[in-house]
Amino acid sequence: MAAPPVGPREVLTKFHAEYHAAVQAGKYQPFKWPYRALGPYLLIGYLLLPPSRSRAVYLLRYPVFALIIYLSVTAIRECRSPAVTVSYGIGLLNAWTILWSATFLIFNDGRADYQRIERQARPDALPPNDSDLVQNEQGETSALDGSTKDGLRSLHPMAEAPQVTTTLPDDGASADYPEVWAAQDPPDTDETY
Q: What is the pLDDT of residues 80-115, one digit of tens each?
């Protein structure tokens, strides 16, 4: 019978030796990024397809989901790492990939049930044209309507809002205001609730 390990270095040495022996024997494979993490990329790639009403793209979600499950399950079953946290991450990454793929591809139609965020220029929020700018004596550039051209700050709706400051009265009361709290304390009674 083998003697138990004496310290943590011996435990790690034994664990690494068992890992390398299993990889050499072909029992496990080392985790290789991004080859063994193709599931999330397939999901993102499918969701990034241009919007269309194509029936083929709609039905493509089922084979994509099946491929994601296959890749994730084989990665969980076949891949290992000498580091415990990386091995845990392999299982976690692939399990979450299966769950999110089911959410976006099976339980919901991720291409139709959700809206894309597309950047569009708002005509009312455009900065003034250079022909509408005037330079004053101090060298500051401003628009003919009086607004200054300083990037997005001039377009922000709260840019002109006044700053509100609060000052406490200096009447000698302590910082925790015991006179306020005394009015809110329950009366002292002998009754037990």
A: 888 888 889 999 999 999 999 999 999 988 887 777
Tokens representing residue 162 in the block: 């006044």
Rounded-to-integer distance, Cα 98 and Cα 121, Å: 37
Three-class SS of 137-184: CCCCEEECCCCECCHHHHCCCCCCCCCCCCCCCCCCCCCCCHHHHHHH
Q: In whole angstroms, what is the distance from residue 47 CA to residue 42 CA?
A: 9
Q: With the CA atoms of 25, 40, 99 and 92 taken in that order, what torsion angle do they form, in degrees rounded to the nearest 10?
A: 50
Contacts of 182 by beta carbon, 8 Å cutoff, 6+ apart: none
Mind listing the pLDDT tens digit for each residue in 27-74? 999 888 888 889 999 999 998 888 788 899 989 999 999 999 999 999
The rounded distance, in Å, linking the Cα atoms of 86 and 93 is 10
Task: Of 115, 129, 101, 110, give the one whose Cα is nearest residue 41.
Answer: 101
